[in-house]
Amino acid sequence: MADIWLPSLKTATPQEGFDLATKMARVGVKVTQPSAEIRDKLRAAYDQDTAQLIASSQVIAIHFQTVAAANNYWRD
Amino acid sequence: MADIWLPSLKTATPQEGFDLATKMARVGVKVTQPSAEIRDKLRAAYDQDTAQLIASSQVIAIHFQTVAAANNYWRD
Amino acid sequence: MADIWLPSLKTATPQEGFDLATKMARVGVKVTQPSAEIRDKLRAAYDQDTAQLIASSQVIAIHFQTVAAANNYWRD
Amino acid sequence: MADIWLPSLKTATPQEGFDLATKMARVGVKVTQPSAEIRDKLRAAYDQDTAQLIASSQVIAIHFQTVAAANNYWRD
Amino acid sequence: MADIWLPSLKTATPQEGFDLATKMARVGVKVTQPSAEIRDKLRAAYDQDTAQLIASSQVIAIHFQTVAAANNYWRD
Amino acid sequence: MADIWLPSLKTATPQEGFDLATKMARVGVKVTQPSAEIRDKLRAAYDQDTAQLIASSQVIAIHFQTVAAANNYWRD
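Output (structure tokens, whole complex):
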């Protein structure tokens, strides 16, 4: 995690902001379980589990709130 | 997901904003489980599970907060 | 869901705002499980399940945040 | 629920605001399960279940955000 | 709970704000389960349960949002 | 916890803000379960449990909202 993955919250469009929120949700998992090997193994389980898919969607939604505010809702 | 599905957070009415929030919640699931076939199979389970229906409603509520703020609560 | 159920976020009082938030939480379930028959059957289970009652209360709380902000907290 | 239980979000102190948030969280349960008899029976279970106690505390926290904002954080 | 435990949301530092948020999360549990004896018994279970520890951390995070806003993020 | 771990919410970059949010989420667990020995033992379980990894990611997301607002979204 030493490299720069989050230089800015600014994005050109809402959709790019959604992609950024998705990335932030994934990094939030990665900082707790840094092993890519274990995460890949775990993924096989959770992407078939709707409760966890919905929970993932919720984390994206929370990050998207932040990204959207940072971009002034792309109103400018 | 290469096409444009979220060009703007602006909607004409609160109800259209609610529809957009619903769409965003679904895309949040889709980015984690991209297979439409698997999602359809999973849907058969979760739309009979009230805990997951409530969780889905919660993700919509979070996205609706963002959409409503982006539209200045349709006060203008 | 073609009819207009959310024309505005404005309400006369906080309590009417709470009622609106409750309605929004329910519509959030309805858009995922559109069958009234299935929802009625499911209701028999979940309204005896405190974890789900609390989860429902949480969705209402999130929507109420939005409705309250839209009404400038009924301060005017 | 026909009587007035939420005439205003204004409270004199943060602590009264916390009490109001607690009340709002309970009403959120009540609107889903209106039977006091059933709620009393259910309470015997959930007030011994820490997961549900924490979930209740979370709903209070969300409502308290709203009440605190409505009172301008009691800064005036 | 008759005594004054929340006279103000103002704290001198972010860290004291975090402590206050922790206290608010605990009081949110206490108002639902007022018996200290039962809470002590329950604590033995939940402080070994990571899911509940994470849930507790989440309630603190929500209250900290409120406390931080009340203190204008300690920017002044 | 007597030492100063949260002197400020200001960070130089969004990414440092994310790191701070991660730390805050962990401290939120630590205040409930202060024993490092028990937390280490528990960690062995939860970092293999995707539901808990997602829940951890969510707590980070909530704290990141606060940190981002405190830094005016690093727009200045």
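Chains B and E do not touch (no CB pair under 8 Å).
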